[in-house]
Amino acid sequence: MAASVFTASACSDAAAPSSDTVLGDQFTVIGGLNGSWALARSINSFGRVVGEAVTTRGQLHAFAWSAIGGIQDLGTLGGRTSSATAINERSDIVGWAMNGNNTPRAFFYTFGLGMRDIPTPPGGIGSEAYDINDRRTVVGRWLSAEGVLSAFLWTESSGLKSLSMPVDYRETRANGVNERNEVTGYGIASNGARRALFWAASGEVLDIGTLGNDSESLGLGINDQGFVVGVSGSPSGPRRAFRWSRSSGMHDLGVLPGMDWSIARAIGNNGRIVGSSGFNGGSVERAFVWTESEGMRDLGALPASDGMSSGAYGVNFLGKAVGFSWNGATFHAVIFPALP
Q: What is the mean pLDDT of residues 56-77?
């Protein structure tokens, strides 16, 4: 993680607990699917959480969790692997799952109907969904028969449509959508640099730039006010979390005290931003919450005898954040304590 915050964190091989627990500091530990690893990616205002966890058979499966119903394995589309990336206020879930041909496919999951493959245009091969709004608009990326990876927007009535690709770009990906159908993500330019993008509801696409002299940026989340969050950096330089809007531009959110890098992954409609901050060349990172009034604050981690790492991936309107905490032995999916 320290080498590049554009990559996922490593996981532990130790066994995870099979039941949910609430610790004294009000961390809620989601017990996982009785395997060795779990990560929570999204939470709605009803406290329903989705993510992925390793099963007892060593497979990575999408899960849904609630305090009343516990954890549920959402299965796959016939393959071995799946991941739930987002849940909306209607408890619709999206993500991706391997099918019987070992190809990743975007899915739309509703309780009662289960997991459904989101159809791609003729010739489409693979796809992945990364976010859904309350209007049931889904965004992600899909792979055409010509080998082009394109950001998409999907609704049940209109089907899957590619979002505009900027001139001289070879690939795009959509990571977040708000209730106005504004979208953020990133594209890969012809020179190989990744650049954060913003798609207006009209279809207009903007390169939203970088911080300072950085060469790369990723748009990772967007709220209903049109604020985009993500990360800006350069292959050989520091990487910093940012917040952007069309009216105010891009602003550096800083890092936790004494740390070197940060990444913002989600922003709620109340303006709270969550992500991770860490050290260059080190294995420890910490989940943070950022607010306009308080700046960046450490969300903490589970008690540990050998390292305490955590990362936040999603936040709801009430300010509850989810992600992971590694306590030196086990990689847990957690709901972080709510900060005032």
A: 96
